[in-house]
Design brief:
CATH class of the largest domain: Mainly Alpha
CATH topology of the largest domain: Endonuclease III, domain 1
Mean pLDDT: 93
Structural class: alpha+beta
Number of domains: 2
Helix content: 40-55%
Strand content: 5-15%
Number of strands: 7
CATH architecture of the largest domain: Orthogonal Bundle
Distance between the termini: 71 Å
Shape: elongated
Radius of gyration: 25 Å
Strand order of the largest sheet: 4-1-6-5
Number of helices: 14
Largest sheet: 4 strands, mixed
CATH superfamily of the largest domain: Hypothetical protein, domain 2
Length: 376
């Protein structure tokens, strides 16, 4: 295998990708709502949603989001909590926050028009190389090739790339190869065709090489070792955390919730107060619950009983959430400057955006709401 930096797309490879791949795409492309519009804003929304999220999951969210915010001006003027609520369950919430902030940039700096140059669009919050290339090529027919996980898998197999596909150096060379293969006359269709190929044919396992329109130039296929690529480093162990959470009720049966800080993981979402169990500090989950609430909002708790325990996996870590039914024994809740809090009824919880694990607690609260003992 030659050095990746010396590789260039051959004339035969260009012909196969520009002719055979696009012919295959014309016959096999899936119908998707974002493929039925030429509105740069709608295309941008779809590309943000599709990052690390399955197409079938995105469809409903995409429709609801554009019904609520049909133009970039509507999104820019929206309350952030409303944006996060519509995003609830889609995950990777920083995408929603950045999209909201970038919409304001578009309105304030570009008169409400999504930029159509690489430099201008890359200046928007949350826009990286992939999203910029996708929006420019699909919305404006600009000749910029995209590189996402599907495209990287196709190219590492075509060129039997032995380098770590996750490294920035490898990605830079793969992006160069993609641009060499790009059909400049149909950049939107070309980019979507390569992504479609990776999603439906050149899959991570059991690729359907017999149905692949570019298998004739695929070196991994010639070697009979397609699943060896892409090369990735060994996965690191996924951290696990035990989290103690307080369901704090007042005398009227309302619950105390607080908003997460504006930076960090799950920023801006609402949650039930609590925090990590610390083995060297807490002798029990109940003790962790008391300590966290004392540190976070300055009150002493009366922990009445365990309420619910659940497991949840996020992208980079896993948690076991231990929820306790509580009341305030002493003190008045004092919010931190960047973490406002409020008392809400069980029905009002539906108006706030919560992380998925907290959402499971809310489902359990609703399930038990007919049990009088819960509110006694």
């Amino acid at each position: 295998m030659p050095d990746l930096s010396t590789l260039h797309a051959s004339d035969a490879e260009k012909q196969v990708f520009r002719d055979d791949l696009l012919s295959w795409y014309d016959d096999h492309k899936r119908q998707m709502p974002w493929r039925e519009t030429d509105d740069p804003y709608a295309i941008w929304v779809s590309e943000i949603m599709l990052q690390q999220t399955r197409v079938d999951t995105v469809r409903a969210y995409y429709r609801r989001f554009l019904e609520a915010f049909p133009t970039v001006d509507d999104l820019a003027a929206a309350d952030r909590d409303d944006v996060l609520k519509l995003w609830e369950g889609l995950g990777y919430y920083s995408r929603a926050r950045y999209l909201h902030e970038a919409a304001a940039q578009v309105v304030e700096e570009h008169d409400g028009q999504v930029p159509e140059t690489m430099d201008a669009i890359r200046d928007l919050q949350g826009i990286g190389p992939y999203t910029a290339a996708a929006v420019l090529s699909i919305a404006y027919q600009k000749p910029h090739a995209v590189l996402d996980g599907n495209v990287a898998r196709v190219l590492t197999r075509i060129y039997a790339v032995e380098d770590d596909s996750t490294s920035s150096t490898t990605k830079r060379h793969l992006r160069r190869l993609a641009n060499e293969l790009l059909n400049p006359d149909r950049p939107a269709d070309f980019n979507q065709a390569v992504m479609e190929l990776g999603s439906t044919v050149c899959t991570p396992t059991s690729p359907d090489c017999d149905a692949c329109p570019v298998s004739t130039v695929c070196r991994a296929h010639a070697e009979g070792d397609e699943e060896r690529y892409p090369i990735t480093p060994d996965a690191k162990p996924v951290p696990h955390h035990d989290i103690a959470v307080a369901l704090i009720f007042d005398d009227d049966g309302r619950l105390l919730i607080q908003r997460r800080p504006d930076d960090g993981q799950l920023a801006g979402l609402w949650e039930f107060p609590g925090g990590k169990y610390e083995a060297d500090t807490d002798d029990s989950m109940e003790a962790a619950c008391r300590r966290e609430i004392r540190e976070e909002i300055g009150v002493d708790l009366a922990v009445e009983e365990p309420f619910y325990t659940l497991k949840h996996a996020y992208t980079h870590f896993k948690i076991t959430l231990h929820a306790f039914r509580c009341r305030i024994a002493d003190g008045a809740p004092t919010p931190r400057e960047d973490q406002p809090m409020t008392w809400v009824t069980l029905d009002e919880l539906e108006d706030y955006a919560f992380p998925r694990a907290n959402g499971k607690l809310i489902e359990e609260l609703h399930r038990r709401q007919e049990e009088p003992s819960l509110f006694d």
